[in-house]
Design a protein that fits this description.
- By secondary structure, the chain is α+β, with helices and mostly antiparallel strands.
- The chain is built from 20 helices and 36 strands.
- The radius of gyration is 31 Å and the shape is globular.
- The two termini are about 45 Å apart.
- It binds one RNA strand through strand 14, strand 15, helix 8, strand 28 and strand 31.
Length: about 650
Amino acid sequence: MPVITLPDGSQREYDHPVTVLEVAQDIGPGLAKATVAGKVNGELVDATRTIDEDAQLSIVTNKDEEGLEVIRHSTAHLLAQAVKELFPEAQVTIGPVIEDGFYYDFAVDHNFTPEDLEAIEQRMKEIVKRDLPVERSVMPRDEAVAFFRGLGEDYKAEIIESIPQGEALSLYKQGEFIDLCRGPHVPSTGKLGAFKLTKVAGAYWRGDSSNEMLQRIYGTAWPDKKQLKQYLTRLEEAEKRDHRRLGKELDLFSLQEEAGGGLVFWHPKGARIRKVIEDYWRERHLEAGYELLYTPHIALEDLWYTSGHKGFYSESMYAPMEEDGQLYQLKPMNCPFHVLIYKDRLRSYRDLPLRWAELGTVYRHEMSGALHGLMRVRGFTQDDAHIFCREEQIEEEILRILDLTIEMLSKFGFSDFEVDLSTRPDKAVGSDAIWDKATEGLRNALERKGLAYSVDQGGGAFYGPKIDIKIQDAIGRKWQCSTIQLDFNLPERFEMEYVAEDGERHRPIMIHRALLGSVERFFGILVEHYEGKFPLWLAPYQIVVMNITDRQAGYAQDVVEALKKQGFRAFADLRNEKIGFKIRERTLERVPYLLIAGDQEVASGRISVRTRSGEDLGSMTLETLTQRLNQEIAEFGQMQPKLENV
RNA sequence: GCCGACGUAGCACAACUGGUAGUGCAACUGACUUGUAAUCAGUAGGUUGAGGGUUCAAGUCCUUCCGUCGGCACCA
């Protein structure tokens, strides 16, 4: 006779085995309606699961995170059922839950069209109306293989075959549709409803590009219609800040078909912003103890053999070009060049650490399908630096890098960081001793900086452990920009040395690091983060001065000159247009400050100020204005970043 | 690279089953001299991404290439 203990400690006693759903029903019909699954002694189970002994039970509803997952998973099954009804020849494969929704992969010859998607969605709604019970059953593994083979579901059979023999598998049946699944699922299809199919795409069977391609249907599912709508609105908002769209609208950059894919053209306004970013970057690096380097764009092919890139990176490198019987190749990375400068003379331990930074433009032949606006391009500028140091200097150097990274990312307005420490993979160069020591150095630096981090065991590169830092943008998306990477390989390959105190030659440690990642990509992230409304210090133009009639043209120009003299990026809009028209245009251009010069302003020697957010600050003297602007610039990005947030 | 969709004026988009390529904004010209998110009128602008084919006739159908978009795979 089961005694059911609920999360609040209350108990219910039954004189017969009960299902989760029955308990929920007992508590209240409202709860029963919202119930999608149950948690019995910590195990997530179907709401129809029978409990026959004493147990801890919590009812999982569509409001719980786990309940939402159940809904999404069940909606994926619903999709598969609808597809099987409409396209009986389609074979089902897998259908997992993903962020905000789910997908299901099918093997079919027919290509799903947008119209098909609509028909499938319609059929899904019909099945919801049928309110079919979802029934769980158990089948021995071998029987299950034969069962799915019998149905002509070869992919399913293959999945089951990869499960160890002797295990019993659970199957879920709704109407005529049966699928292998761990569950749990909603008790009946009527529990589903707030979903939408979003897109069709190709996807490789088992994620392997040497396998055949399946057709994947993506969908999103939510507890109710309202949340579904909110999600769709969120997608629209994200689309509005798409850097490709804003890049065109605000005339910041372009990609030119005539030049080839993945090659970025910076227009005047984009270039202004880039200059601000780069000036700041160089200045901070010099202050932080770096020296700046410039290196060529091409080098002899042999160099890339020495560095090893011809071996493990050649697929991404542009083909060699021949000149005077010698082969040159475009650089995909800056590191070998910095190594050459190091090797240009004999280094002493007294020289170390050497910190060398370069905004180095590299070219990588990314696969055509990978290209994406500024986020994934073929020619880009890394904010690269290499630190050559002694083993015992690792920790201190990493700490310095972390300081600079956090400061710089904060300056650009990011305050949420996610940090990963990746350790030694199975295949790696360098002794265990040096790996341990280096990894410890990275770990200690993170601890000293007070950064919370997660460890990606075995996730490091073959040549050294690394720290990656992700930032979160204004709408919660995460971007990996910064990477700090130890390298035991290149110093070896190039036989780098320094003379130590003992007079012997030793091998230095090399640290690669990029803080912004690439200037192009970081710029794209900034555009989306700010929706083109760059903070004052970054804005391509900070101030526009607009006259009301020709009479104030001279005054407006004087104001512009005065502002420029103080280092502001200002321009005049003297077009013979109504002030409302100019305000509209310049606001859409996201110029932070709009100054208006009419007869009143000329007479008083003041200026009327309006912000791009539509705030009318009234009239003020130029001095008051520039004070305000200077303060706004100085204060920006000085906020204390959140360090403990993982 | 793979699967699919798409490519029409500077931009955003129209053009029923093949039958004279249009609209809005921008540009240009003129008028208006204007007070906080669009003044009015006029003018010009296109070998429909490129090449090949089918047809009396192709923006529309077929084909190759290029590019873009959504995914997959790969990745700063």
